[in-house]
Write a structure and sequence with these properties.
With 432 residues, the protein is an alpha/beta fold. Strand 12 and strand 13 form a beta hairpin. Helix 1 crosses helix 13 and helix 7 runs parallel beside helix 10. It is globular. Bound molecules: flavin-adenine dinucleotide and NADP nicotinamide-adenine-dinucleotide phosphate. The site of flavin-adenine dinucleotide (FAD) has 34 residues, from helix 1 and helix 7. Flavin-adenine dinucleotide (FAD) binds next to helix 1 and helix 7. It comes from Streptosporangium fragile.
Length: 432
């Protein structure tokens, strides 16, 4: 009898888990991948920046996993709404939770809830065409905006704001989003780091891209990027060298300006009824802690995008640590027959590839635990979903959505694909 495993979430962690199960199992195994959206690939589709086409092509590799004969995609099935842990444990020998970290973190400063103060998660979802965020969510009508945080997501957001719509035309950005980017009045984008350049989380390749923008200059203040990096890693030395070289060069008069700041922390978002300014405080480190110096500066921005990290949300009935915002586990084991992988397991850090070794560890634990055990499952998920009126989106139906996106791109004379907007359009494309 084959081992039956349910994987919840079809991002990199979920699909690397399915692949590892196929590779590591010594006997027959079948995997059902449950996904709340009609589309697979998680943040590869709805996170990776649209102009990073080579990274997006990882979807081609993940597609290969979904096409393995013993792997099945069940889109439009949400854990916590359509099924719960007890349902899945009745139908499968084991369940692996891989639902990622979909929600923004907050800064905890006054004014954070003013209109115009937004999470990078929302903005990323918007330009990636995620069905949770409508296309009219953003109007880029401010000439100055601030992006808080100096990680790779902040760099993505800054780059999308700095590029022209023409530069993004060949990407899969939804047509309505592209129209709104073309109408953008943004001229200055401040990117704010609360510590020094040697502490920034962005990677060198991503940082360098900011210096190669044809539509924007980059400004860095010499006094803000002094740092002793002689003992630092190559990555940190590289970042600081690039920033210092930008500080030494003049502006070329390009239409937009990326203003990179360090040693400044946001203390208040100001405005009557909407964001009108951002108050910053100069910082320094005292015993390793970011500490305010009492020196303030106010930026006249109309939008504040917080890109200060993601966090996971608890899954109903599944253990969750509020302190680490992850599912507590031992090498991927949560409880008897329940496992976890990816960002839900280790928090929202690491590139796509990190999830491969992470998933492999979880699968090793799972297979060792289940070796020689008699199956205890006694129900069938298809029957259970049918009884609840849930009809999953199949892999073939997802391919119809992909085909409709390619067709749309062709009709608009754009690149390989243009994302369909909204669940209804996607479901129509797959004949439902
Ligand atoms: C904005 C952004 C850009 C990034 N860009 C890059 C990059 O360029 N290169 C790189 O290497 N890494 C990048 N990363 C990191 C990379 O995306 C992550 O390492 C990776 O996606 C994490 O994989 P995951 O499967 O744990 O989570 P996810 O990719 O988030 O997948 C989780 C999946 O679970 C589904 N799900 C959630 N809740 C439920 C539920 N209740 N029921 C069913 N399904 C559910 C979601 O819809 C989603 O499909 C980026 C991250 C972000 C946030
Ligand atoms: N191209 C790529 O490879 C790519 C693209 C996107 C994302 N990713 C990956 O995805 C993961 C998540 O990226 P991320 O950018 O969301 O997270 P991140 O790398 O953790 O960066 C978060 C940034 O927010 C800052 N921050 C946190 N709280 C703050 C606060 N209250 N006030 C001001 N600043 C605050 C952090 O500063 P401190 O350091 O001071 O806390 C840090 O600069 C990372 O591993 C990243 O590499 C990769």
């Amino acid at each position: 009898m084959s081992l039956r495993v349910a994987v919840v979430g079809s991002g990199p962690a979920g699909l690397y888990t399915a692949e590892a199960l196929m590779k590591q199992a010594t006997g027959p195994v079948t995997v059902d991948v449950l996904e709340r959206l009609p589309t697979p690939y998680g943040l590869v589709r709805y996170g990776v920046a649209p102009d990073h086409t080579s990274i997006k092509s990882i979807a081609g590799y993940l597609r290969g996993v979904l096409e393995l004969p013993d792997v099945r995609f069940l889109g439009g099935v949400e854990f916590g709404k359509d099924v719960d842990a007890a349902d899945l444990l009745a139908c499968y020998d084991a369940v692996v939770y891989c639902t990622g970290a979909m929600v923004d973190r907050r800064m905890g400063i006054p004014g954070e809830d003013l209109p115009g103060s937004v999470a990078a998660t929302d903005f990323v979802n918007w330009y990636c065409g995620h069905p949770d965020v409508p296309a009219d969510r953003f109007v880029l009508d401010s000439s100055e905006v601030a992006v808080i945080g100096v990680g790779n997501v902040a760099v993505d957001v800054v780059r999308v704001l700095a590029k022209t719509a023409e530069e993004l035309r060949a990407t899969d950005v939804p047509e309505e989003v592209l129209r709104r980017l073309a109408a953008s009045r943004v001229r200055t984008i401040h990117m704010i780091g609360r510590r020094g350049p040697e502490h920034a989380k962005f990677t060198l390749k991503e940082l360098r891209e900011l210096g190669e923008l044809t539509n924007a200059d980059v400004r860095v203040r010499r006094e803000e990027c002094r740092a002793d990096v002689t003992a630092a890693s190559r990555q940190v030395r590289g970042n600081v060298e690039v920033l210092q070289s930008w500080a030494a060069r003049g502006l070329a008069g390009r239409p937009r300006l990326v203003d990179v700041r360090f040693w400044m922390r946001p203390v208040e978002i100001l405005g009557e009824g909407r964001v009108e300014a951002l108050k910053l405080e100069r910082t320094r480190l005292v015993e390793g802690r970011v500490t305010g110096t009492g020196e303030f500066e106010t930026l006249p921005v109309g939008m504040v995008l917080r890109s200060v990290g993601y966090r996971s949300v608890p899954l109903p009935g599944v253990p969750f640590s509020e302190s680490t915002m992850t599912v507590p586990n031992e090498a991927g084991r949560v409880r008897d027959r329940e496992y976890v992988a990816g960002w839900l397991k280790r928090g929202p850090t690491g590139v796509i590839g990190t999830n491969k070794s992470d998933a492999a560890e979880t699968v090793r634990t799972l297979l060792a635990d289940l070796a020689g055990r008699e199956p205890v499952r006694h129900a069938d998920l298809d029957d259970l979903l049918a009884a609840r009126g849930v009809s999953p989106v199949t892999y073939e139906q997802w391919l119809s959505i992909e085909a409709a996106e390619a067709e749309l791109a062709k009709s608009l004379d754009r690149g390989e694909r243009v994302k369909l907007l909204g669940l209804a359009a996607m479901l129509t494309a797959c004949g439902r």
